[in-house]
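Exercise 7. Predict the joint structure of the components listed below.
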Amino acid sequence: MNKATPAAEKTTYQNVKQSVLRRIRDRTWAPDTLIPNEVDLAREFGCSRSTVNRAMRELAEEGILDRKRKTGTRVNATPVRNAKFVIPLVRDEVEATGAAYRYALVSREVLQAPPWLRARLNLCEESRVLHLNCLHFANNAPFQFEDRWVNIMAVPTVEQADFSTLGPNEWLLSQVPFTDVELSFSANAADARLADFLALNPSEPVFTAERTTWLKDRPVTFARLSFGRGYRMTTRY
Amino acid sequence: MNKATPAAEKTTYQNVKQSVLRRIRDRTWAPDTLIPNEVDLAREFGCSRSTVNRAMRELAEEGILDRKRKTGTRVNATPVRNAKFVIPLVRDEVEATGAAYRYALVSREVLQAPPWLRARLNLCEESRVLHLNCLHFANNAPFQFEDRWVNIMAVPTVEQADFSTLGPNEWLLSQVPFTDVELSFSANAADARLADFLALNPSEPVFTAERTTWLKDRPVTFARLSFGRGYRMTTRY
DNA sequence: CAGTGGTCTAGACCACACA
DNA sequence: GTGTGGTCTAGACCACTGC
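Solution:
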């Protein structure tokens, strides 16, 4: 095979994406412009329609283009960019920084679901829940405080589980499937207990994540994760 | 045409995704299991390999599966789920709640880039930047304070732009292309100025987003967006 | 080397949305 | 009706990677 005389390279969907992005950037196709249809683009780029389709579909998923049947494809004027965040296990997040991960169980109790939780998870009045408080450390400094509630009816085996060495998040992930997740981030002031656990000053700001998961309309668990001082969640795209 | 006797439906990639997810949930394919290859799955599902491929590719993108050539496709033991956040314009975010959006320019000045900004954006010493402070209101209550810095060398026309009625974010989006974005969220305490602008108590926690954008290695702008009391960023998947 | 996923093709039919 | 994107197919070649 003669590598010095390469055959005409095929146009890939990546090529098409790059070309389209270039035209958008250099304003060949300004915002709100209607761009040619897939058949024409395929002819122009010298590739099949499927290749163009994949390129355009991905650009639409990324929020760059807006596609509609019959109307055609338009350059999105306000690129409502989708930021993707990777939500790792605490253990992985800590170890990724090179720090040693340590987990500790703070408390564990089974009780009737309190009203606020019943409302949030849509539980009936006599629902029993497992309530856990845990701490996750990075190099022995508190990294995350986990306040977790598990719906026992949805996960009966949770009552027998031993959470003294393995965190509930890892346990649940390996034991319980889920279909839906709601994730919410906010900034809150540390109360006395939280300040204590995370070694913060009272009312210091705390980055908070709340996660609720369901298995087909059945609530499984609610967790409030409070992060230590200086935590940032970062992404690039 | 007899609709009562529908032809055998074709298997779609959505069907395949659902089937695969079901098998993962009911532990037919437990975590870490190696699942059949695309050719076998196509035969089993009665569809073409391309259809299976698309289903599996999307599940891998979503973090459910882990795919490797030669090795095959494995069920991800720790579903490092990718959470997608839609990052809209402030205007759209406010108006989506039904509130009236209002924008106000607080201050505007051209100056030498301060050292911290030079370091952050990798600017040379004599770089000039436009510094803007803006407020975004929802029903006349402060919603977001925007502290923005624009690299004039990257966007020369910004010096002539009028930001008294249109926010810099909207202006930049419509005027300047970009290739890379870094986005970072954190919780911070309000300083006196911020408390003033956002009608907060001093040192109250503030949800903060910082966004830096580049156009091919050339830094374009850095913005720190501080949100008013009670702000949440939420997503479902 | 051989098995797996990654991609391209050419053609086909369909679903939607606008006129 | 008609034009657009959405998807499926059957087959092909390629690229990576573990043996």
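Discussion. Residues 10-13, 47-51, 54, 68-71 of chain A lie near DNA strand C (CB under 10 Å from a C1').
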